[in-house]
């Protein structure tokens, strides 16, 4: 518990550093491209267009989900997925890749994953902004429910941070964890209602089991805020409580693991 | 004077494995596989405030391991290092990014060193001035020569103002004029009564700069004392060592290495 509080304190006191380092990271990543930061948005946008063509036009035609055309439904959810997927994959590598850079300084090591995530978060914000514009054009006007979107954006960030705090530590100790994470994320992608949602046909118990997947809550939260205009987080308060509880547990495990190994990172790298 | 760094029976053990299999085995059943290597073996000494301590010894003797432990970069396996005050390692090449320009690197490395926004704004002009890079400061660091890169790194590192400073081969950067300038900066630290640990193979520099010497041999402290005494002995040793035949040198190295290795269960 003490480790948890320390991590939170460290994150808050390093807020400025995280923002600046994230900006530098984006610069470093995109230094050699003429379009620079635009690629951070363009890449997922192109991928979305692919999904749109394959699943929206090809396989599903003009079907709707609760009155919203499939393609909008998919766009809202998948934007969240692109962010968390990238944030977790890159964030997990953060400590073992960047450790040598900061080894000789008194650097708060839990900041390494968080600034990587923050860099990806900037791209995510731009992407969500772009999607919003598309939705406005298509007649989904801005609403009071955008307030809820801020809540879900923040929650995606915190969720990604809680996972990477744990995985970035484990990856240092056992490098294979990185491979495992990749596979698990791929599995989660198909278990979550991101590309499709057929759970309506599933038996009751399986439906409630699938709802325990945090991506389920987050994806539906984005959709509720951008398209369906309802207070998803309040209407499904049990899920809200459950997900925050889950994040808290992961954070506590992650921070105690991080502190347990922090002094010995140099032995493992 | 008050003691500023106390090193108490400090050891650093590394586990050595011959294969990945041994490494996993050791993770699952600690102590069953692999062997130990004592990089540092029971070193104790105390340093007073304002002391400039040179760490000398032949390659692989454990100087860098010891200086890294004093700097808090790696934890000792056993024993204790008590440092009274803030410790900082002058790491010239750490924390520079090749993709960024010189001026961006200044902010980048300062951020990594934990400076606040105000402090960064304050030190940036000083760094630009001290680094002598001129207009190159706006070029990406990947276009720098190694000397220019070191100059930049050094200029950033010395803006830190800790109580205890660890310098590992940092003063041999750049050309002679820059080396002199760096040494002058270090002397300024010395005058202000900072405790300095200085690792170098440049014996002339060590002799002129340090007032105490810790001579490390094969992971152990061979001698610790005032510069003139220890340096004389060390120089004698080096002369003698150089006179030895190649085989005798090898035998000497092996003797030291065997002393540091154990737990390999006669695997030869």
From TrEMBL, chain A:
Chain segments annotated as transmembrane: 34-58, 70-89, 110-137, 143-167, 179-196, 241-259
Membrane topology according to the record: Multi-pass membrane protein
One GO cellular component term noted in the UniProt record for this chain: plasma membrane
Key words, A-Z: Cell membrane, Membrane, Transmembrane, Transmembrane helix, Transport
Record's signal peptide: none
Keyword Protease appears in the UniProt entry: no
Residue runs in coiled coils: none
Subcellular location: Cell membrane
Positions of the ABC transmembrane type-2 domain: 35-264
A Pfam family this chain is assigned to: ABC2_membrane
Primary subcellular site in the record, as a coarse category: membrane
Gene Ontology molecular function terms on file: ABC-type transporter activity
UniProt record, GO biological process: lipopolysaccharide transport
Protein family: Belongs to the ABC-2 integral membrane protein family.
Protein name as catalogued: Transport permease protein
Gene source species: Viridibacillus arvi
Organism placement in taxonomy: Bacteria, Bacillati, Bacillota, Bacilli, Bacillales
TrEMBL record, chain B:
Pfam name, any one: ABC_tran
Signal peptide: none
Gene3D superfamilies assigned: P-loop containing nucleotide triphosphate hydrolases
Residues in ABC transporter domain copies: 22-243
UniProt keyword terms in alphabetical order: ATP-binding, Cell membrane, Membrane, Nucleotide-binding, Translocase, Transport
UniProt keyword Cell division, yes or no: no
One MF term in the entry's GO annotations: ATP hydrolysis activity
Similarity section: Belongs to the ABC transporter superfamily.
Name of the protein in question: Teichoic acid export protein ATP-binding subunit
